[in-house]
Amino acid sequence: MYLCLSRYYAIMTSNNTSGSLTAIIVDDELHGRENLKKIIETYCPEITILGLAESVVKAKELVGNVKPDVVFLDINMPVLDGFDFLEEYYERNFMVVFVSAHEEFGINAVKAGAVDYILKPVNIRELKQTVKKLFAIHDKAQKADIPHGLDKLVIPSSHGFNVLIIDDIIRLEADGCYTTMVMKGGKTAVVSRTLKDFENTLPKEKFFRIHKSHLINLQYIKDYSNLSGNLVTMADGSKVELSRRKAPDFILKIKSLLKSV
Questions:
Q1: Whole-structure pTM over 0.70, yes or no?
Q2: Which of 126, 116, 128 is nearest to 47 (CA)?
C-alpha cells in the first residue's frame, strides 16, 4: 500500500529544529547521486546531505542509521525500485522527493505521498521551490500535536481543531501515514497522524492494537472468531483482522477485562 501524504506536515515527528533539514540521496547511478548532491550543496545549503545510497537495500540501511528528514529518491533502479523502497515503510517519518527522468510516474508518486516530483536534469528553480515546500511541511510538523484530557482528544484540522470524545471512538484504521477514525453514529474522520501516534496517546486499558493496521476500542467488540482467519467484529459491523502475533495478548486482555467486570 502506497502512503498518502498530501497533508504530511501533521504526522512528521522529526526533532530537527535547527533551521536546517537532513537528507539522503538514493539513485543507482553514481553520476546521478553525485550531481544532485553537488547541486543541493551549492544552491540549497539549508539541506544537509548525510549520505548516498545506490540501491533500496543500502537506502534502508542508511535511513536506519542517520534518520533523515528527507529522502531524494530515484524511481527506476534495478531489482527494487523507488516504490518498492517506500513499500518497506508502513509508517514513515521522513519526507520523500522523487527525482526521475521519467514523467509517467507522476501519478504514482502522488499516491505514494511524495512531497514533490522533480524531473532530471534538475532545474535549480524547481529544486528551490521543492525545498521551500519541505520546510513549510517541517515547520507545521513542529506545531502538530495530539493533546488530550481525561476523556477527550483534540485533533488538528486544516482550519483549526476538533474535539472528540474518546469513548465515542469505535476503531482506528491506518492508511499509510493517515488514520481513519470510525466513531459512534457512523461518523468517520481522516486524520493525518500515524496509527502509532494514537496507540501511544489513547488509554491502553481501553484501546488495543490488534493488527498493524487496526487499533480498536475494546468496549465495542461484538464477537471474535478464528474459523476463517482471526476476525474481530466491531459494533459498526466491520470485521477487523487480528494478527497471529497479537492474538495471545488479545485473548489475555479480553480475559482480564471480563474478570474486572
A1: no
A2: 128
